[in-house]
Write a structure and sequence with these properties.
The chain has three domains: 93 residues, no CATH class; 158 residues, Intergrase catalytic core (hpI Integrase, Chain A); 42 residues, no CATH class. It is 50% helix and 9% strand. Helix 2 runs antiparallel to helix 3, helix 11 packs antiparallel against helix 12 and helix 11 packs across helix 13. The radius of gyration is 22 Å and the shape is globular.
Length: 318
């Protein structure tokens, strides 16, 4: 592979994995990056992996710490940010610099944006594309990731029973979820042309479609918080919202399909930041039966919202 890098014209060095968003048109690689490519090759990196890492570095400017800041401030998805930080860390190792990689995972990032229910509702009803709206509702109702939604098959859905099975990947368990009437109606509108529900070329298409809508909403409403929403944000919202309603960590772990309870506990901290009135527990009742139950438990009715009845009582989360 090293010989191949030396032989190829610079413009052909872009053949490989799918480009990182925004990195499609770049000038030729310089000798420093080519030397780093040889270093990666000796470390056992595949050619397609090396191409992607070179594209990321070509996009970044300044010293190592500047590169870290540029990645964290970007609008890339959590996964792309993590990949970029790892690349820069390897580049620092190659240069003999000992600069630790910052934490980028959403539940460690103090700048994490988890939309509130009203924002999510506004987004869902702005989406006119039936497939995308269905995919987003699946993520919201089950916490499914982009790849899990992409891989869904018709055999995973039972419309008469209103259930869907999400087959876990990347450490997630497999679990069956109830789904709403609204989601069932959307799924019934999608033609059954093949085994998979969503006939897309690759999973990245989902996030690309969603980006178009969040840009429209940000422009229409003047609220740039919409630009912080990626498809994986919907999974973070789903888990946060589930814990917000139940206050049950074990049940939330089951919902999130986490193999380790430690991963679920991180969402408790998100919810603590989510509740603006720190002295209260806030819950939502979706029907009058739940409303009666919460009132008996000592909750005070605040208002009726588009998500149901909002109630509160003195906070018990420690």
């Amino acid at each position: 592979m090293a010989e191949r890098f030396r032989r190829l014209p610079a413009e052909q060095l872009y053949v490989g994995s799918t480009p990182t968003p925004g990195l499609e048109h770049l000038p030729t690689y310089n000798s420093e990056l080519l030397s780093f490519a040889f270093w990666l090759f000796k470390k056992g990196n595949r050619e397609s992996t090396i191409h992607r890492k070179l594209k990321i570095l070509k996009y970044l400017k300044g010293n190592i710490e500047d590169m870290y800041h540029q990645i964290l401030a970007s609008k890339w998805s959590d996964g792309t940010k993590e990949y970029g930080l790892i690349t820069v860390q390897q580049y620092a190792d190659y240069k003999g610099l000992k600069i630790p990689k910052p934490e980028s995972r959403a539940y460690h990032n103090s700048e994490l944006y988890v939309p509130n229910p009203t924002t999510i509702k506004q987004l869902i009803y702005r989406i006119s594309n039936v497939k995308l709206r269905a995919m987003c509702l699946i993520a919201i109702e089950t916490g499914a990731s982009e790849s899990e939604v992409f891989n869904l098959k018709w055999k995973d859905v039972n419309l008469p029973n209103k259930t869907i099975v999400i087959t876990g990947i990347k450490g997630h368990r497999t679990y069956q979820y109830p789904i709403s009437d609204e989601l069932c109606t959307l799924l019934m509108q999608i033609p059954k042309n093949e085994d998979r529900i969503f006939n897309l070329k690759n999973s990245r298409t989902i996030n690309d479609w969603l980006k178009n809508y969040v840009k429209k909403l940000a422009k229409e409403t003047g609220n740039n918080d919409f630009l912080k929403i990626h498809f994986h944000t919907l999974r973070h919202f789903a888990i946060s919202w589930y814990y917000f309603k139940t206050k049950d960590v074990v049940d939330t772990q089951r919902f999130a399909r986490h193999c380790r309870i430690e991963n679920t506990l991180k969402y408790v901290h998100i919810i603590k930041q989510w509740i603006t009135e720190n002295e209260y527990d806030v819950v939502y009742a979706t029907n009058k039966e739940q409303l009666t139950k919460y009132l008996k438990e000592g909750y005070e009715l605040l208002t009726k919202t588009e998500w149901g009845y909002c109630l509160r009582k003195p906070k018990e989360i420690k």
